[in-house]
Amino acid sequence: MLRAWALLALFWSCILFSNAHICASSHQCVPKENCRREEPIFDLSSTIDCSDLEVCCEKSNVIGKKHRPSTLPPGSLCGMSNPNGLDENQRVYGNQVRPGQFPWVMALFTKGQYFGGGSLIAPGLVLTAAHILVRKSSVYIKVRAGEWDLSSSGEVDPPEERQVIKIIIHEAFKYSSGAKNLALLFLDSPFEIKPHIQTICLPIPGQNFEGRRCMVAGWGKRSFAGNELLSIQEKIELPIVDSLRCQHQLRQTRMGSNYQLSDSLICAGGEQGKDVCPRFGGSALFCALEGDPNRYELAGIVNWGIECGQENVPGIYTSVSKFKEWIDPHLEQVFSVPGDLVFFMRSHL
């Protein structure tokens, strides 16, 4: 009976997907010579589409081949900023970002209310913090790209929204310490890459940003104790603080003399009056690529802090370079699903 069902699944998959190999996310598409044992898998809840030159192979059976590198669709370039913005008639003040200046910055909404930030790392995938998603359902979450002023709908380049259809939170996330605090949001359809909607580059595994000055951009409260939420996107430039110094500084606070900084975290800030405050959670900490000051890579994710803007009290960020290998398989999955299959999956949710 099971064999009959398998043959039936094969028959329908050939009709629906033109003989493509459809792999579950626990498998990988590789050349036949790189697979000990080929296994046809048909799991429409989580799919990877193999080319005609590849076979579907359980990851434990892959030999002589590493994961495919995570790349963007042809013709696009990650981390491209618009230093002068995209609306020359729009005046900005203080720390306000120019419209479209950092086009990977995402705004997250639940039931129409802004609750945090995220970063577009692929046209259909957003990286954010796990802690801001606690007790939230994907059914009510929307991601807005190309946003600048939360209180206005009159931007020259209007923002676009997508529905979240799946949330993946790191399996070892600890709310109490902020360790491994990251999550992925899968969108119902990918954003089209445009000047005001771009992806940000991911760092290489283990990359160290200590000693550099980097940037956070997004929306949040103006102060720790205040209730006013920024409506226009703002940027804050912060120094990356080395881990030992950060741990020492945090031990001088209410964290206590025994505080241990998790190796999944990095620190930034510690300058009087310059910091991210509540509601910036999930936003990107990004640094310019060496040799190209107008392109950026993702160093961290806004995690937690002790109030905000205190001298010698850095803020805490999830270190993205520590999780590149956790992120990459999900990027592969997003890039390998063709548009017609995405539509089929959406219509059967």
From TrEMBL:
Keyword Signal in record: yes
InterPro entries (alphabetical): Peptidase_S1_PA, Peptidase_S1_PA_chymotrypsin, Trypsin_dom
SMART domains recorded: Tryp_SPc
CDD domains: Tryp_SPc
Bilayer-crossing regions: none
Any one GO molecular function term: serine-type endopeptidase activity
Name the UniProt record assigns to this protein: Phenoloxidase-activating factor 2
